[in-house]
Amino acid sequence: MSWPRRSTAASWRVGMGSAHPPRLVRLEYTHPEATSTVVFAGKGITFDSGGLSLKPPKAMETMKADMSGAAAVLGALQAIAALGPVVNVVGYLPLAENMPAAGPSGRPTSSPSTAARPWRC
Hints:
Number of helices: 4
Structural class: alpha/beta
Strand content: 15-25%
Radius of gyration: 18 Å
Number of strands: 4
Largest sheet: 4 strands, mixed
Helix content: 25-40%
């Protein structure tokens, strides 16, 4: 889905520094007999390094929790699909990585031993 930049400018800007572009995911559950619609939205910042010079390294380790809103919406949609209620449900997950794109960046939680190994299938 194309990103509606004007209405979600802050999320778009957060992801602009990453090598991975931000995404807006739209999930939908529809019931043929539904007469109403419920909408959920949850922020998914997969790694928030914003303010690198302001945060001590230990505080940055918990920034991955900024994805919990999107994770909750995804979990809710999975449960709703399994339960089959008579309601339409739409979920929006604005996803972005708040990480500088000046080359492949490491994260405070990255392990140097696993980062040095080549990818294997």
